[in-house]
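User: hey, got a sec? need Xaa-Pro peptidase family protein folded
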Amino acid sequence: MALQFEPTEYADRLSRLTASMAKQKLDAVLLFAQESMYWLTGYDTFGYCFFQTLVVKADGSMTLLTRSADLRQAKHTSTIENIVVWVDRMNADPSVDLRNLLSEMDLLGARIGIEYDTHGMTGRVARLLDHQLTSFCEIVDASYLISELRLVKSPAEIACVERAAALADDALDAALPLIKAGGDEAAILAAMQGAILAGGGDYPANEFIIGSGADALLCRYKAGRRTLSENDQLTLEWAGTAAHYHAAMMRTIIIGEPSPRHRELYSACHEAIKAIEQVLRPGYTFGDVFDTHARIMDERGLARHRLNACGYSLGARFSPSWMEHQMFHTGNTQQIVPDMSLFVHMIIMDSERETAMTLGHTYLTTATAPRPLSRHSLELIIR
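Assistant: Yep! Here you go:
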């Protein structure tokens, strides 16, 4: 089997899951999030774009219901021994196959948790599932059951995150010589992704963000490439990826002479991220991180230019997003504890002056101060 971790690591994860299930009095859970299946068993596929689910019972037994295309994938990449295939056919309703499987597993009338909040669960699937199971068992929304278990990383996971962070640094190193007047965004992207793949990394769970000129103010990838001018701004957000574990970085790089506004916004970003380092530690919450960011931005008169979140937890994720559920936003009571991998980003977009500034990288929390995982400093990059 092509497992990324030792069997003992997966056994420990299963033990933690069944303990959490016992606390919530769940007889079984239906996992639809690909990252949950990957974390628990090593199962590695993009087949979650179709109907598939991993049934985990309270006794730790597991059965995967999937399509024929993923049968060998599951056998080769996971610890799953029991695999059931639903057959592709006209008007197929695999939720019926699932109900029959659950009946065979003696789960009629059971209390079953379901991962609803995931990209592996479409609205149509949810409706089919609810139709089949409402009278079959007691349904519980267990969307965050494994998500919460994944927040704290094991030593083996931390090694993956550290490798991902090194690859993210390699990507920036590859890009910097190309970031200059006349530079091509396409060449920059190719160099960054190429450095990660050449270093043994993976494709990221979402596209790298690249934008220059007016597009530097965008926070999402878009199609189309541009050539850099003599005085320009380039916003990049990317992640190194190792065994699907991500370590993200973000920078707005100035080509030519930075404007006074660029320097003003950079100063705010730098002040905020250094202040966050003082609360990115045990004893504080995710909400405290956001409040620190908002306070500094608002004191500088930048309230309308900042975002309503300033980062999130990172880990092993699959398309279409490398973000985990837990984010830095107002009111989030999630406690910060050691061994979390957390991406902190400062994003200021002044549309009135068409001026962008971003700054961010991934940290590993400890018992005291957080440890930045990038070898690059937070200095403003000018080319």
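Quick note: The first strand starts at residue 28 and ends at 31. Let me know if you need anything else on Xaa-Pro peptidase family protein.
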